[in-house]
Amino acid sequence: MTIQPTGAEHPAPVTDGVPEPGAVTVVVPTFNESANVRELLRRITASVPGRLPCEVVFVDDSTDDTPAVIADAARDCPFPVSVIHRDAPDGGLGGAVVEGLKAAASEWIVVMDADLQHPPALVPDLVATGEKEDADLVVAGRCLPGGSRAGLAGGHRVAVSRGATRLAKGLFPRALGGISDPMSGFFAVRRGAVTAEALRPLSHKILLELAVRCRPARVAEVPFVFEERHAGEATPNAGEGLRFLRHLVELRTASPFARMVAFGLIGLTGFVPNLAALYLLTGAGLHYLPAEILANQSGVAWNFLLIEVLLFRDRRHHRHFADRAGRFALLANADLVLRIPLIALFVGELHMAVLPATALALLTTFVLRFAGTEALVYL
Ligand code: GDD
Ligand code: MN
């Protein structure tokens, strides 16, 4: 649905899909924000079109009358306002923003919330900073001098936000090096620096997704005060913490090599259930050899469940659960059977010493198991 402005004397920022230099498309995801969108448009009108040409694109997943309120409020706006209403919302807040990025045609795109926690008055400053510093991405940050997380209700949310920031920056030191607040949902990005097709947002953290996958060349920052919500309540986001962790793992393991390293690390954690089961089974009087074999299965099961959730979440649809589990267990046990003949081969034929031969055999079976998991379980 596109709502044309009544103030037709104002030029639209976009002509025939060619971005006008310096123009901005403001992308606003909305979920039941009917009490906020009118005030948001009023404040955008007060601070943006006087300084640069703009349009506003709402990506709406509401179940209330938000689109109708936007349509009504847009009549007073001297710039184009459009609403992309999604009947089958995909990817929540992150998916909505990606949809908006695809629809935006101006040279600059500003992503912001509808609830006025992000001050619209800052929109022209973000773009001006990007132009002045020749940056591709300008982040409105809450941790810079002059900024604050004032609107984060409750001390625990500030602590969680800090912890999440540290974790993300630790995992992506280069991509997030110049970004003090990668959890911010308020930023400006040059359209040319965004490859919307490459984005697979999983959690709400769309800036994190964009910074890691699109790697904008130059990043600038502007401080801002994260205000209290204007009206209504934040969208309930059950499971967002876990989704955020999965998002980090998915971003971190995008390359095959990184995925192999993660596969190995997950494999190492399998020692814990393996040894615990061994302890219990031998304690119950079982002979150590069958106990070893059984205990190994608990490590295999543990590893399987972890890689299912963390590494191959997107590739589970090719086979049924039992099929995947069976194949994975087969590979993991073949690993054990293969190792001894491999060591014998390395020692007997290649004349290697026992220790390096064992290490090489371990490495070989590991790589085979990883390749096998990729090709035989999840393909
Ligand atoms: N289209 C769409 N679909 N919009 C959504 C959805 C959804 O499923 N869920 C939330 N939104 C919209 C809301 O209407 C609002 O405009 C914006 O996304 C932010 O949602 P809030 O519910 O207000 O989230 P918040 O205040 O907890 O989170 C904000 O602050 C975080 C930093 O603390 C967001 O800006 C996050 O991106 C940011 O990381
Ligand atoms: Mn909010």
From TrEMBL:
Start and end residues of each Glycosyltransferase 2-like domain: 25-193
State its location(s): Membrane
Where do the record's region annotations for Disordered lie?
Answer: 1-20
Lineage, top-rank taxon, reads: Bacteria
UniProt keyword Transmembrane helix, yes or no: yes
**Keywords assigned by UniProt, alphabetized:** Glycosyltransferase, Membrane, Transferase, Transmembrane, Transmembrane helix
Q: Membrane topology for this entry?
A: Multi-pass membrane protein
Indicate the principal place this protein occupies in or around the cell: membrane
Does Mitochondrion show up as a keyword for this record? no
Q: Which parts of the chain span the membrane according to its record?
A: 260-281, 293-313, 325-347, 353-371
The residue ranges of the GtrA/DPMS transmembrane domain are 263-377
* Similarity field: Belongs to the glycosyltransferase 2 family.
Q: What is this protein called?
A: Glycosyltransferase family 2 protein
Q: Which organism is it from?
A: Streptomyces gobitricini
